[in-house]
């Protein structure tokens, strides 16, 4: 049983006593079961529920302001003298907590330690009680908490006497003092005096829960079961959650049935009807929209915080597995991470690494694609996608990704080594593909107006006016197959340079570029250098041109250099030598 902070269970306004530290001394603890050790102090131990706290430790926001009927502080002389007497160490009961405090600190507002070593402010204001009475009450609360029930009873008695002499009008504070002293009587086994003080408290504040509960326990101790039953039932009207009252009602019901038989209810005193204003937990107001919104926002923040903690933990576990070479386990952790944050780029690149190590190249490429959608310039995503494409034997795409990496950072040595290796593999694959295709003679007819014209070589007829990329590709392949650079030159001469990138998009390879360069150098440069310049200006914008150009042998680059040197030397009014040099930089 603990001291009560307030008479908060009878429907009146609850008052809070500011005490140091933040937990008030002897504050009401709704979770404490009075059946614990030292509960009632009598022979008949019975469980008591929530609400059977000890004496009140009342205070409110008045911070000690009070009004007395007499208006003079002299009326507190008797209680103050009693307090001073104890402070000087002359109390009949010997040294108390307040004596220890005064001796150690020497000041009125001294903080003193309880049984658990905490400190409290004995001068904290309590409701409308003047400071001397508030101190007496606080000292009583502390003594009660420390198990010094007789000393606590004396403090409460002095406070009650001082209240009577002061003439102040605060029935709630006096009710709490009587209720607290009743708790001391109950602890010392003095049930009769407990009943008297509880009755006085209830006269001041009807339907106050704790005096009712204490009186019921006192009645039960004295085996006055009918009155105990009535008080317990009244308690349950005020607060249905007091489990001790439920237990006691059940226990007393069995006893009364044994004692009075089936008609036991007829012998009960009348159970008073508790007004709604005094009832607790019966009507619960629905939360307001603001409260609901605040709850939702808090829940969202909590969920986000928990998700962040879980994400960080899973990511770290995944990283640790990678360091240990346990890529399958790491893959699972990264997958869990993506369920929490599906747009976290680094997780995609990390999981792509695991897929690469497990030789699951398709999944690795997909993760790199997802990462590049989130961060289009992510260097790791390009590099790991290049490795995935290499594993899928898509050397051209691999080469393109590696070039992107080197364009962002030319110092990535791993990308340089991979590019050299992939270049060799790409040349080999192109050579294998070329040798696997059977060569055939393709007749290509040039149509000029209503007449048909053709450029013929050995078994070759070339259409010099193609209308789409397919016809152009057939004509170019025919010229390449016959190594007829003159026919290729005629084809280029009859083709709009702006259409060249479109026509070559699906036919571009290293051999095609070399062949076109030879045709331009051997046949068109002397006839029309302006046309050669125009073709070269558009040729480099063809898809995959840079990749194919990179794979050309060194001798082909040497031929290109010679072509641009001759083009620069040719006289033209449409371009300058500086224009040719800038264009050459795109090829050489």
From TrEMBL:
Span of domain RNA-polymerase II-associated protein 3-like C-terminal: 466-556
A cellular-component GO term for this protein: cytosol
Biased composition range(s): Gly residues: 106-116
Biased composition (Basic and acidic residues): 49-61, 72-87
TPR repeat spans: 311-344, 345-378
Record region (Disordered): 1-116
Biased composition (Polar residues): 1-11, 88-103
Compartments it resides in: Cytoplasm
Keyword Repeat (UniProt): yes
Residues annotated as signal peptide: none
PROSITE patterns for this protein: TPR
Keywords of the record: Cytoplasm, Repeat, TPR repeat
PANTHER family membership: RNA (RNA) POLYMERASE II ASSOCIATED PROTEIN HOMOLOG (PTHR45984), SPERM-ASSOCIATED ANTIGEN 1 (PTHR45984:SF3)
Name the UniProt record assigns to this protein: Sperm-associated antigen 1A-like isoform X3
Naturally occurring in which organism (per UniProt): Betta splendens
């Amino acid at each position: 049983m603990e001291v009560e902070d307030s008479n908060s269970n009878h429907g009146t306004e609850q008052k809070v006593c500011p005490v140091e530290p933040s937990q008030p001394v002897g504050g009401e603890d709704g979770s404490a079961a009075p059946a614990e050790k030292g509960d009632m102090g009598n022979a008949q131990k019975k469980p008591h529920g929530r609400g059977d706290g000890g004496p009140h430790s009342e205070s409110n926001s008045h911070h000690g302001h009070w009004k007395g009927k007499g208006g003079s502080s002299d009326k507190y002389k008797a209680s103050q003298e009693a307090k001073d007497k104890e402070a000087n160490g002359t109390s009949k009961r010997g040294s108390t907590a307040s004596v220890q405090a005064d001796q150690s600190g020497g000041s009125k507002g001294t903080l003193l330690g309880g049984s658990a070593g905490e400190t409290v402010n004995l001068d904290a204001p309590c409701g409308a009680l003047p400071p001397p009475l508030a101190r007496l009450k606080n000292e009583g609360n502390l003594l009660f908490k420390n198990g010094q029930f007789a000393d606590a009873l004396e403090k409460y008695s002095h406070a009650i006497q001082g209240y009577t002499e002061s003439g102040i009008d605060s029935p709630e504070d006096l009710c709490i003092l009587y209720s607290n002293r009743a708790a001391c009587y109950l602890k010392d086994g003095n049930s009769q005096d407990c009943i008297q003080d509880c009755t006085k408290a209830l006269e001041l504040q009807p339907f106050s829960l704790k005096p009712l509960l204490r009186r019921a326990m006192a009645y039960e101790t004295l085996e006055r079961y009918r009155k105990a039953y009535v008080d317990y039932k009244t308690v349950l009207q005020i607060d249905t959650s007091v489990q001790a009252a439920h237990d006691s009602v059940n226990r007393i019901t069995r006893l009364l049935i044994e004692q009075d038989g089936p008609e036991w209810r007829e012998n009960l005193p009348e159970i008073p009807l508790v007004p709604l204003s005094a009832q607790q937990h019966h009507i619960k107001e629905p939360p307001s929209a603001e409260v609901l919104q605040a709850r939702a926002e808090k829940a969202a923040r909590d969920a986000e915080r928990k998700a962040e903690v879980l994400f960080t933990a899973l990511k770290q576990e995944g990283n640790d597995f990678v360091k240990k070479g346990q890529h399958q386990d790491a893959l699972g952790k990264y997958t869990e991470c993506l369920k929490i944050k599906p747009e976290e780029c680094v997780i995609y690149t990390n999981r792509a690494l695991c897929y690469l190590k497990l030789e699951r190249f398709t999944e690795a490429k997909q993760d790199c694609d997802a990462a590049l959608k989130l961060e289009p310039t992510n260097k790791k995503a390009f590099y790991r996608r290049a490795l995935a494409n290499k594993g899928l034997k898509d050397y051209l795409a691999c080469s393109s990704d590696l070039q992107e990496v080197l364009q962002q950072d030319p110092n990535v040595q791993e990308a340089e080594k991979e590019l050299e290796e992939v270049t060799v593999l790409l040349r080999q694959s192109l050579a294998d593909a070329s040798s696997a295709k059977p060569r055939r003679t393709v007749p290509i007819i040039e149509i000029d107006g209503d007449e048909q014209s053709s450029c013929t070589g050995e078994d070759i007829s070339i259409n010099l006016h193609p209308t789409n990329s397919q016809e152009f590709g057939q004509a170019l392949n025919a010229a390449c197959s016959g190594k007829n650079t003159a026919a290729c030159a005629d084809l280029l001469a009859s083709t709009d340079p702006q259409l060249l990138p479109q026509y070559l998009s699906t036919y571009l390879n290293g051999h095609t570029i070399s062949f076109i360069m030879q045709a331009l150098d051997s046949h068109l440069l002397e006839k029309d250098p302006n046309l050669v310049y125009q073709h070269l200006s558009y040729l480099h914008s063809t898809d995959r041109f840079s990749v194919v150009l990179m794979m050309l042998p060194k001798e082909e680059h040497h031929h290109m250099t010679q072509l641009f040197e001759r083009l620069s030397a040719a006289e033209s009014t449409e371009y300058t030598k500086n224009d040719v040099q800038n264009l050459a930089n795109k090829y050489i």
